Amino acid sequence: MQIGIMGTGSTAEIMAEIVSKSREYDLTCIYDTRIDGAQAFAKRFHVGTSTFDMDVVAGSCDIVYISAENSCREELVKKMLDEGKHILCQAPISMSKKTAEELYDMAADKGLVLMETTGSLYTPGFAKLIEILKSGVIGSVMDIEVSFSRLIPTNEREHTFPEGGSFETFGNFVLSPVLRILGTEYRDAYINAVYGLNGIDTYTKVTLKYDHAQATVKTATAVMSDDALTITGSMGCIYVKSPWYLMRKFTIKSYDDKNNDTVYNECNGNGFTYDLAEFRRRVAAIGRNHLTDHMSENNYEEVKKQVVCSDSFTLLTTRESLAATAVIEKFVSQRHAQGERKDVKIWAHRGCSMAYPENTLEAFEAAAKIPGITGIETDVQLSKDGEVVVFHDEHTGRVTDGTRNVQDYTLAELQKLHIQSVGGETTTIPTLKQMLELLKPYCEENGLLINIELKTSVIRYPGIEQKVIDIVREYGLEKYIVYSSFLADSIKLIKELMPSAKTGMLSGTMEGCIQGAIYASADALHPWIGGLNAKGEEKLADAPVRAWNMEEPFFNDGRLLKEKDMGKYSEFGVTDIITNVPEVYLKG
Fold first, then answer.
1. In the predicted model, what is the mean pLDDT of residues 488-501?
2. Nearest alpha-carbon partner for 276 in 111, 94, 81, 90
3. Domain 124-334 carries which CATH code?
4. What is the pLDDT of residue 282?
5. CA dihedral 517, 522, 523, 528 (to 10 degrees)
6. Topology given in CATH for the domain delimited by 345-585
7. What is the mean pLDDT of residues 482-496?
8. Distances, alpha carbon 473 to alpha carbons 138, 350, 466, 470, 506, in Å
9. Does 345-585 match 124-334 at the fold level?
10. 2-116 belongs to which homologous superfamily?
11. Across all residues in the chain, what is the average pLDDT?
């Protein structure tokens, strides 16, 4: 059976891994709205066709798995149904219950399978759980609690509009077992959420109220929970340990301890493996019986017994899917507004370091010539003989033909190392003095700023702070320099040696920046774009927030430029971005 995958995110990767190991499927096509993303994904999984054209997908496969962004799933589902394709789709199919129902109707009219992934409901462990619940060992189910959490960097899709949010991303996942066990006829849904700086929910708790039971589901992208499932009954309880969705182990505790037990279950792979198997069975059933999994209330029980199997708990019904969609739709209707987007200032990270070798005079000059650029960021270390050189890595091997750490070479030896440059030429490691000599006219004429990062967090380099300050003073550029480091003690020392110096605290998270800045009296916060998880305290409320992106490609490193809109991080309070491609943002 030939299958195409539409979307190239993390769930698409999981599905591609499953399909590539199966003899039942031939992965024939990868679709993404970005052709470079589709090509890279196809190359990784040895797929012959990569495209951004939906017609190409339709002509390349029998069935499709859709994991594209929420905002375009409806369009993709409709197109593939029009093309007569059976569809397995990442949940939710739509953010609108009405639209989802129309798509299910369309599939039914065409005799096609349209099924959402669940990640849990078709595992052997879940079937065993249902069997135990039906036995009555814990009595009537009165309450269910289930959670799913991930600490996801703020530069991932889950933290951005309109695709992101913990509940839009994971809501269906936690709602599925609740709706399967308690049914779809909940009376009301009560929603509470905690929102990030850009207005996206990072932690959401939803309580479904039934006539004689209730359920609480929790999703998170910025906090951690135990990711367990607890079912409370009138005569006992069942606890499914983390990760609950694999159902590998759960414990039963009865009111009299007579039925206490620990149940172990087999789970080969992950829940998507079983989703795909269920999807295949439904497609086969469609072929045998001309039936669909969408059915009216009148013939629901009759038809359900003919498709796949007779156990009413093993068929994900359209009603469950629509009930989950209704909860998500209610959440979307009352969520916070998107954070305010503002203009950001642009800094060149190690110069124009995608177009030229990083931290070279060529990269710095190219950046300095860009109209509207705010500044250039660079890194300094000490050579074996105590000279201040411009280089990022402690080891020379990634960028040069060197084989040792920077500190193990004299300046003369360092400047004999070769850096591959544009057009097959080579260049060398510059000193801080050479860099300042080059950029001094741009500072004085255009107000160009220079962020000097002291590489002191791995190798301490005693005395480097004073040496750098002395060189800056030698060139009379004090007012154009920002000093930064991942080591708070280094920033603190800069302030002690030169109280008027402007400094920035580097960290992978805003929390780390804030803690370090308070300790070292730093003037600015320099977080990674994936760690925008906090807001500066009152004394830092007006501090510049200069965010950097370590996922951008460097010169000739073979990676694709995926992030082309770092300006969106202004919604988190970012004021400046430090990028390898300043020319992309300031192209006019």
1. 98
2. 90
3. 3.30.360.10
4. 86
5. -50
6. TIM Barrel (3.20.20)
7. 98
8. 77, 22, 11, 5, 23
9. no
10. NAD(P)-binding Rossmann-like Domain (3.40.50.720)
11. 91
Catalytic, out of 86, 159, 294, 349: 349
Q: Which one is catalytic: 392, 395, 418, 526? A: 392
HEC per residue, 535-575: CCCHHHCCCCEEEECCCCCCCCCCCCCCCCCHHHHHHHCCC
Q: CA-to-CA distance for 203 and 221, rounded, in angstroms?
A: 7
pLDDT at 308: 32
Look at residue 307 and tell me whether its pLDDT is greater than 70.
no
Sequence-distant (≥ 6) Cβ neighbours of residue 51 within 8 angstroms: 29, 30, 31, 35, 38, 57
Whether 336 sits among the annotated catalytic residues: the reply is no
Alpha carbon of 483 to those of 185, 238, 260, 284, 493: distances in Å? 60, 56, 63, 65, 11
Domain positions in the chain are 2-116, 124-334, 345-585
Q: d(Cα 173, Cα 304) in Å, to the nearest integer? A: 23
Does 349 qualify as catalytic in the annotation?
yes
Q: Give the three-class secondary structure for 38.
A: helix
Q: How many CA atoms lie within 13 A of 31 on its CB side?
A: 24
Which uninterrupted H or E stretch holds 447?
Answer: none
pLDDT tens, position by position, 115-155:
999 999 999 999 999 999 999 999 999 999 999 999 999 98
